[in-house]
UniProtKB/TrEMBL annotation:
InterPro entries listed in its UniProt record: Beta-barrel_TonB, Beta-barrel_TonB_sf, CarboxyPept-like_regulatory, Plug_dom, Plug_dom_sf, TonB-dep_OMP_SusC/RagA_CS, TonB-dep_rcpt-like
Domain TonB-dependent receptor-like beta-barrel: 403-927
Species for this entry: Maribacter arenosus
Family per similarity comment: Belongs to the TonB-dependent receptor family.
UniProt-recorded name of the protein: TonB-dependent receptor
Length: 987
């Protein structure tokens, strides 16, 4: 009622002011290129008389005789229409072209979105994934076509596996280069997600080539938040989250286990409940920013206390970041200083406890005193243990008696000096250093059967210490010059880069302690190993100066504001090669054209085609591979030669061609990229002629891969008005990688592991075929005498009896699935209504399979396994009593999940002089998953670290192998569903 009366008074006042001018009613429709615009503003110019269009874009307004209508809409250019004598007006608004002039950061400079000739994706803060995000890479999960980010199982202490456009190398680093505020090779772990303003992803070779070898797997450019001029502002962000197990592996209940013939020990124990919990995560972030016309600053502090769903796992982390920007020398010199420090204390726990919680006898008691099987408490700490069984340990004992903790600190600083020599010519210098220190400590009590006594019956207890220190230094100097000649705008950049990395580590292991009444440090000091050297293990390592020096240049040009050209070259040298092969050249070129500039298509804002070509390289993972390598012999000063020298060892190269198409029309935008990669000369250790090379082994350029795919991103503003907005976007990608050349024509990798299946390899690596093929015998569905009947694929009348059939293309093995997905999908939905906002994000992967190792080991009703619980999925067949890998245990793992759902409300505080803004949010992550996979997590396993444990029972620490995707290991963490409440206050 009050609004109606106020509007009436305003109309009366307007008539009086205009001398009772003759009024008229005007109707009309407001649209864009795709249809009606609901909620568009229609106002009589110079007055407060106005209205909004309805859902169909229609409006009616009464105005003066000589009125002009001002029609506006968010994201569109404002239009003014003189009414004259018109009574019906149709208006088509054009999208504001400012978005095409958005500045996008690229390597050593910036460009506008319209002028870029490479495949580059920009993700702003408003597009980041919401909720509890402890790893900065998770902000981008599913948001960038072609960028795969998976933290299979969701262990809070493990970094996500990141792949850009599939596998880019075999023997080198396969993850994208990270550049934070210009610092090449910075750590994502040293930037808190709350401090990130935007992320640019350089996907193709023409964009990444200017970074040379380090950009071979793509580049992720992170820009952190900066201070702004004005009154000091304080921002607080806090959240509290609760996580529960999203899904686990189906096993038998205690009664089912006893009925199935399992050894009944008289108790009924829910082991999984005893070793897991509802985990909480608390995050507190405070940022202070401000400045004046010459200097601005931002200082932030972040504290995270993240629990894992496995008891005694999680971390506490403190991170601080400071940035200062100042202008001096008459504003010619701009200085940017950045500093960050992260301190994390981790409790890694033991993932194996999750496995044993599923598989340990569900009728066993927790403590020995509760069982008819009495044990001496000092021997096993009072915990019941099923002695004599391989790979079977009390999971509660594992997490309660032993510890596995770590400390990590990282410190980074950078200073960037930009001096404006002339208005169109500047000079830039960057100096940076990053240091990190990692310490891991494991302690196994003398009363712990697991790892304490089981692997060495004469040893009581064990303590292990690992320490690693790394130091990275960077200096870069480059200059940029801009000029205009007629209709051409030119930019030239040239520079120099120097970087050096050093690493030092040592490892110490001691055992056989006098008693269990000592802590970890005393265990190291008091160990009887000082007298009994049989239980001492110690080693150390140090890298030489790992140095890269490079010279680079780039020229870009824009002609007629519609034709765009970019070319770069980098000449780079590395100490990892012999003196004759230390240098390599990496060129790139790209060209693009806005066809709409010449075609002048109706209702089209942009129609750009672009083609880019770039060459990048990759360095070997270790130093000195071109020289002969040695190892100590029998703990003495003598040594054994491991490999022979190869002075001809050279750079690995990746040549990539990318074709792109960009389209924008009103509320619709789309980008399509099609690419082909040829990776050659990747560096592998291989067998050589022993008559020429004494060891018969050396490192050589011995492999080639080919990768191709496409990426599609579509974004559409379904509703766009002052009060209501709804935007939806889809990213879809496909990648296929083929091994063109390899050290040997074919081999099998990926051992299934113990017990009993160490010789069973499951992943085929064969020249000319796609990487990631799961290879093995095919189950017919019949069971005879407890064994699966396998298909006679080659028709020779002989059933498969040996694993070497895997190496016979005409044998009885077949492709059972593929470890990498055919398609990956992300679907974003953003809805705002006045002060409310809703975000729903769905993610999926299709075409990949997983080897369910839990089923392969524990689904068969093996007689000797009567003290292990049985996996009890829909595929379980009680008739199968012999464990053997086959197609039965390979499952399609396609999935779609509601990855993130959040709702927020921003309060209207009016003119409150103390609090500028308050916002509350509620979100859920991993809320539901649609899949037929029976394991705990259907997400792809893009790499593998080998079988479950080494001979001593310790989890292997081998480098992950990208040639072995698709194995869902028993050591994986369980994924979690997380609910988060968040609060943001701005003072």
């Amino acid at each position: 009622m009050k609004i109606t009366l106020l509007r009436s008074f305003l109309l009366v006042g307007a008539f009086i002011c205009f001398g009772w001018a003759q009024a008229q009613e005007v109707s009309g429709t407001v649209s864009d290129a795709n249809g009606p615009l609901p909620g568009a503003s229609v106002v009589e110019k110079g007055t407060t008389n106005g209205t909004q269009t309805d859902f169909d874009g229609n409006f009616t307004i009464t105005v003066g005789e000589n009125a002009t209508l001002v029609i506006s809409y968010i994201g569109y250019s404002t239009t003014e229409i003189p009414v004259g004598g018109q009574t019906n007006i149709t208006v088509t608004l054009a999208e504001d072209a400012q978005a095409l002039d958005e500045v996008v950061i690229v390597g050593y400079g910036s460009s506008t979105k319209k002028e870029i000739t490479s495949a580059v994706t920009v993700v702003g803060e408003e597009e980041f994934n919401q909720g509890t995000v402890n790893d900065a890479s998770q902000l981008l999960q599913g948001k960038v076509a072609g960028l795969s980010i998976y933290n299979k199982g969701g262990n809070p202490n493990e970094d996500a596996v990141i792949r850009l456009r599939g596998i880019s190398t075999v023997g080198a680093n396969s993850e994208p280069l990270v550049v934070i505020d210009g610092v090449v090779g910075a750590s994502l772990n040293n930037v808190d997600p709350n401090d990130i303003a935007s992320v640019n992803v350089l996907k193709d070779g023409s964009a990444a080539a200017i970074y040379g070898t380090r950009g071979s797997s793509g580049v992720i450019l992170v820009t952190t938040k900066r201070g702004t001029s004005g009154k000091t502002s304080v921002d607080y962000n806090g959240s509290l989250a609760l996580s529960t197990i999203a899904n686990n592996v189906d096993v038998m209940s205690p009664d089912e286990f006893a009925a199935a013939g399992g050894v009944d020990l008289g108790s009924r124990t829910d082991w999984l409940d005893l070793v897991t919990m509802d985990a909480s995560t608390k995050i507190n972030n405070v940022a202070i920013s401000g400045g004046d016309e010459n200097t601005n600053y931002r200082i932030s502090g972040n504290f995270r206390d993240a629990q894992g769903i496995l008891k005694n796992s999680g971390f506490k982390q403190y991170n601080t970041r400071a940035s200062v920007t100042t202008y001096t020398f008459n504003d010619k010199l701009k200085i940017d200083f950045n500093m960050s420090y992260t301190k994390r204390k981790s409790r890694y726990g033991f993932n194996e406890a999750l496995r044993y919680a599923l598989l340990y006898n569900p009728t066993a008691p927790v403590y020995g005193v509760d069982s008819p099987f009495q044990f001496d408490s000092p021997t096993f700490g009072g915990y019941f243990e099923t002695l004599g069984l391989f790979d079977s340990f009390n999971p509660v004992s594992i997490i309660q008696q032993n510890s596995n903790n770590g400390d990590k600190s990282e410190f980074t600083y950078s200073a960037n000096f930009n001096y404006k020599i002339m208005d169109n010519w500047d000079l830039n210098a960057l100096v940076s250093q990053q240091t990190s220190k990692l310490t891991n400590k494991e302690y196994y009590r003398t009363t712990s059967l697991w790892r304490g006594n089981a692997t060495s019956p004469n040893r009581k207890g064990l303590a292990r210490l690992y320490n690693e220190d790394t130091d990275f230094k960077l200096f870069e100097l480059y200059s940029t010059y801009k000029a205009s000649i007629g209709a051409a705008d030119l930019t030239f950049t040239g520079g120099y880069s120097w970087q050096q990395n050093n690493r030092y580590d040592y490892f110490l292991s001691l055992g056989d302690f006098p008693n269990d009444n000592i802590d970890y440090i005393n265990a190291l000091e008091w160990s009887q190993d000082l007298e009994n050297a049989g239980f001492i293990d110690a080693n150390s390592g140090a890298s030489p100066d790992d140095r890269i020096i490079a010279f680079f240049g780039r020229a870009s040009a824009t002609f007629d504001n519609a034709i765009f050209f970019n070319a770069s070259v980098r000449r780079e040298g590395s100490t990892k090669f012999g003196k004759d092969n230390q240098w390599a050249t990496f060129p790139a070129v790209g060209i693009g054209a806005d066809l709409n500039h010449y075609l002048e298509l109706n209702n089209v804002d942009l129609l750009k085609v672009r083609v880019g070509y770039g060459v990048t390289g990759a360095l070997p993972s270790s130093n000195g591979l071109s020289r002969s390598l040695y190892e100590p012999a029998d703990g003495k000063l003598s040594s054994n030669q491991l490999t022979d020298a190869n002075p001809d060892l050279k750079w690995e190269e990746k040549a990539e061609t990318n074709f792109g198409l960009e389209f924008a029309s009103g509320r619709l935008g789309a980008t399509l990229d099609i690419y082909t990669r040829n990776i050659s000369d990747f560096i592998l250790e291989r067998d050589v002629d022993v008559t020429i090379f004494p060891t018969g082994r050396r490192w050589e350029n011995a492999g080639e891969m080919k990768s191709s795919g496409f990426e599609l991103a579509v974004n559409y503003d379904v509703v766009k008005s002052e009060d209501l907005n709804y935007n939806t976007g889809i990213v879809l990608s496909r990648n296929k990688t083929t091994l063109e050349k390899y050290t040997i024509p074919q081999e099998m990798r990926g051992s299934l592991g113990a017990p009993g299946q160490n010789d069973t390899d499951m992943i085929l690596v064969r020249e000319g075929e796609e990487i990631g093929q799961i290879w093995g015998p095919v189950f017919t569905g019949e069971v005879v005498d407890g064994s699966q009947v396998l298909e006679d694929l080659n028709g020779d009348g002989q059933l498969l009896t040996a694993q070497n059939n895997a190496l016979d293309p005409d044998g009885d093995f077949a492709v059972l699935g593929k470890g990498t997905p055919d398609f990956e999908l992300g679907w974003t939905n953003r809805l705002t209504y006045k002060r409310w906002d809703l975000n729903a994000f769905f993610r999926g992967a299709f075409g990949h399979s997983l080897i369910n190792t839990y089923r392969a080991f524990y689904e068969p009703r093996v007689g000797s396994q009567g003290s292990y619980n049985f996996v009890n999925t829909e595929f379980a067949d009680p008739a199968i009593t012999n464990a053997k890998f086959s197609s039965l245990y390979v499952e399609k793992a396609d999935f779609v999940k509601l990855d993130n759902l959040s709702i927020g409300y921003t309060f209207d505080l009016g003119e409150n002089k103390y609090i500028k803004g308050v916002r509350v949010t509620a979100s859920g992550q991993n809320l539901f998953t649609i899949t037929n996979y029976t394991g705990s997590d259907p997400e792809p396993a893009l790499q593998d670290r080998g079988s479950e444990a080494d001979n001593a029972g310790f989890t292997t620490t081998d480098s992950p192998d990208p040639l072995i995707p698709g194995i869902d290991r028993r050591s994986n963490y369980f994924s979690a569903t997380t609910f988060t409440l968040g609060l943001n206050i701005n003072f």
